[in-house]
Design goal:
By secondary structure, the protein is mainly alpha-helical.
């Protein structure tokens, strides 16, 4: 979601840059010439900047819709896009023909409030401590194998680094 927000900011900056460029390099103004004359004159003054402007406007609309969809899914449904697309693969989601129920949804509060330290101030009733259980708990042997694998790969990477670097 942060990526979409900052991408939207960068697209606005690009649109502002195009308009600033036209103000400095083209001999027309919107108030003096009118809308259609202004559009044709800036398109002939700098076709590349005009194309970049049109592309940025389309991209702005597209990213704004994606950001709104992502915010809706996270705040109202309590589910990410990946979880929504692959809900049938996960056993901890209750999937019906019309809905997907996530065990991580807070029902009355958006999912992102759970991440803030002020969540107790926002809730109207005291929350019971939530216990999160993993669908596939790690056993001791698997943890040992993962630790061994991590040590061996780290050792191999450091050895390769010492061999190839003087």
């Amino acid at each position: 979601m942060g990526y979409l927000f900052f991408l939207l900011f960068m697209i606005c900056w690009m649109i502002y840059g195009c308009i600033s460029y036209w103000g400095l390099h083209c001999e027309t103004t919107y108030t003096k010439d009118g809308f259609w004359t202004y559009i044709t004159q800036i398109a002939t003054c700098s076709p590349w900047m005009f194309w970049m402007f049109l592309n940025s406007v389309f991209h702005f609309l597209w990213v704004a819709v994606l950001l709104m969809c992502q915010m809706y899914q996270i705040s109202c449904l309590g589910i990410t896009t990946n979880e929504r697309m692959n809900a049938r693969r996960y056993k901890h989601f209750k999937v019906t023909t019309t809905s997907i129920e996530s065990p991580f949804n807070l029902r009355h509060h958006p999912k992102f409030i759970r991440l803030t330290p002020r969540r107790k101030l926002l809730s109207s009733k005291p929350e019971a401590p939530s216990v999160v259980t993993l669908p596939h708990p790690l056993d001791a042997q698997r943890e040992q194998r993962m630790a061994t694998w991590l040590i061996l790969t780290t050792w191999a990477a450091l050895s390769a680094f010492r061999i190839y670097m003087p």
